[in-house]
Each structure stands twice: as structure tokens, then as C-alpha cells.
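User: ok so my PI wants both of these folded by tonight, can you help

Assistant: No problem, let's get them done. Here's the first:
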Amino acid sequence: MTEPLHTCAHPDEQFPDWARDFARASAAEQRLELEIGPGRGGFALDHAAAHPELDLVAIETRRSDVEEIREKAHKRGLTNLLVFQGDAKLLVPRFFRPGALAEVHVQFPDPWWKKRHQKRRMVDVELAVQLRSLLRAGGTVDFRTDVPAYARAAVESWEAAGFQNLDGPGALWSGAPEVLSTRERRYAVTGQPVFRARFASPGPVEPGIAERAAALSAEGKSGREWRDVRRK
């Protein structure tokens, strides 16, 4: 198993130097992407392999999955993928400076079905606003889920945070992604639907957007119980 070069900034740095860690000439020439919750890494590994010109940082909570992805990346000779264990909501603001990211991938986050667990859901307005501040102008979000209610809630959250829905307000993407996750490849056989959406950041976050976004989404977050059934 190969360990990442750095898990935090050096003492004299505010943020990690990703250009250095990925052996790129400069940050200006680097296309830096983030995947939150890669699971066992099916998408992360294939995406990094298909695009050696980009650098992908993945954050996963399960240590066993992190170790598995690192081992597979090492075996495949992927030097443009680094995987870290931890809570993305805590690590992301410590990992990336504003405007550093070109794309963010959030695929099949845990729906946390029970009402009392709603606060644990990954995608909410707070995260959307945070990611918008870290994406460069025109930077994109790739969101995928197999839970219809999560798709609706996520679209509301991204749009409330000021993201442009690339397929129109409130719309899901009907196209097919270049790289499928392991789950999507399985669903292609079983027929389980996948709900995808794409968003673009219009640029720096304007003052007060977090408060306005929270107010816009408050009704949708107040006690809704998701009753969608996700097939395994």
C-alpha cells in the first residue's frame, strides 16, 4: 500500500501544495478535481486512468476502502490520484483554497433515511455554498444518486447556492457519463435507474448567499421523510 505524500499543509502553508504533491509544474497549469465518497474507487480509478492530465483528490470515511483504492492505484501506476480518510465536510475547507477546484464529483451519497439522521446527509445548502467557493468560475459539479428524493433535494440545494443547472432549472441530466461507477455498471444490467445532475459555478460567492440559500431550502429540509425504496 502506498501512502499519500501529504495529508495537510506544511507548517508554513495555509493549504497543501497540490501542484507539488502531484508533481505538476505549477498550480496554474493544474486541473484539480475532488471526489467525495468514492467508496471502493470504481469511478475514481477509471476517471484518473482515462484523464492523466487531471489530478483527483478523493475523500472517503472508511479506512478499508481508502486502503483498497490506494493499493489499486499503485498497481495501475496512477500518480494522479490521492485518497484520504476522513470527514469531507471537515477536510475540504482545509484542503483547498478558493477557486482551486475544476470539478467536484459526489456520487451515491448515503441517504440517511431516518428523520433524526437528516443532518448527516452529505449534500445540503451549507456544503453547496462551500463547494461553490472552492470551484473556479465555470467549475462543475457531477452529482449522481439512485434515490429520487435525494436527487430532488440535491438539485434544490445546488440551485439555492447559486449554481447554474446545466440542464435547466430543476432538471436532471438525461445523458450518459463518460466514466461509470461500479454501481452504475451493475445497474446497467439490473435496470435500476440512476438520477444525475450537472451544475456550474458562476464565480465567487456573493455576500449573504449562505443565509439566502438556507432560507430558500428551509421548507424542503424541515422534517421530510424519504420513502423511496433503493434496490440493492
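One down. Here's the second:
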Amino acid sequence: MKTNGNTILITGGGSGIGGGLAAAFHKLGNTVIIAGRRERVLREMAAAHPGMEFIPLDVSRPESIARAAADLDARFPRLNTVVNNAGVQHPHDFARGGGYDDAGAQEEIETNISGVLRVTAAFLPQLKRQPSATIINVSSGLAFVPLARFPVYCATKAFVHSFTMSLRRQLQSTSVRVVELAPPWVKTELDAAHSAPPARAGMGPMPLDEFIAAAMQELATDAEELAVAGAKFLYAGGVSSRLYSTFEQINP
């Protein structure tokens, strides 16, 4: 991917991985538009990076996506990159009575799955008008080796991985390139629901700044499936009983 001279929309761009990517792309001279539900967070992020734009957008609401797509088509006709990053995560324990949170699961599905589908469909007409464009779908190392405490989240990220492969195939004769970015366990707001790893494992979340640096290096290559740092191990291993058992032991 050419990492400068782009006009980039990043969903969930006010904080966490989205915010880190936004700051990194902005520093490289791209026009960056961050989107999300929390307007205050978006304003603060944009104020900290003069020239960065923002737009309120709830990817779980089709009408919000439609408004944003029309607005950005008018104001930023050269928009050529969309990063589907917005995501939510909730724990569920189907073995325990009352351990399944239906509202939480529906939020995960609407944001992590339907949001990716709807944002992609809404912005593809504009992207296809560009001589060169990119869709970056943020999945997770958990798409390849799930973590039992977050069964719905992991399944939604497996969906993102599968959908991205199909989308890439469908768009292969167009000007739109489709990239998957799979982070490892990264220290963000999303990490708050995780327990601390056992001391014997010697493992923990990757600092956000280290992840962003590694991710930007990966994005500057021609590769289309980008598993970063620890996610490479999960991507290479896939789902196997031995790997799954080991991963659960070190990531409670």
C-alpha cells in the first residue's frame, strides 16, 4: 500500500488501534477522517492532530452510514481508503446460567459484522471511481485461534477474515485492493475485559505504539493478509486442539 498522499476514512478512529493508525497516517501526510459514535472523543483526537477531520458515525445503524457516505462523497471526492476498524467485545459463558448476554452479542454482530458489510457496500462506489483504492479490514489473531471467554467476538473476527477473502476475489478486476490487518493482543480500551496473564507465561498485551509501528511497516508492503507480531503465530497455526489449549492457558 502507498502510505502517503491518500484520503483515508477510519471507523472507530477516535481511540485504540483506530486512533493509532489515524495518527500514523496523518503524520505521513495523508488526509485522515476519523469516524465513531463518541463525538467528544473524535473532537479531542482531531484537535490534537491539526488538519485531521472527523465525522460522527455509528456503523451499527444503516442510516448513519448512508449519511456519512453521502457527506464524505461530497466533501472528500478523492477518498480512496476505508479502514473498517470499529469493533466491540463482550465476554459470554454459555456454561453458566445467565452467562449469555444477548444484547451484548447483538451489539458485537451489528458492529463487527454488519458494520463491515454496510460500510464496505456504502463506500465502494466512491472507491471504485479512484484510479487506486484500498479497503483495510481489521480482523484479529482471534479469528484464527479463538479465546473461549469471547466466543462471539472471535466468531465475528473469523467472519471478517472469510469475508475479506471473498471480497478480494470479487474486486480483483477493479482498482480496489482489499487488505486484512490482523492485530495480536494489543493494550487498548478493548483489553479492559481481559484478565492479567499468568506470570509463568511471560506474556501480555503488545503496547499500542509498538503495534502501530509494526502495522505501518506491514501496510507499506504488497502483502494482502497482514498478521502483525504475535498474530503471525496464530495465523500460521490455525485452529488445532493443542494450539487452542496452549493459547487458553496463557490468555485467560
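The beta strands are 7-11, 31-36, 53-56, 81-84, 133-138, 176-182, 225-227. The first helix runs from residue 16 to 27. Good luck tonight!
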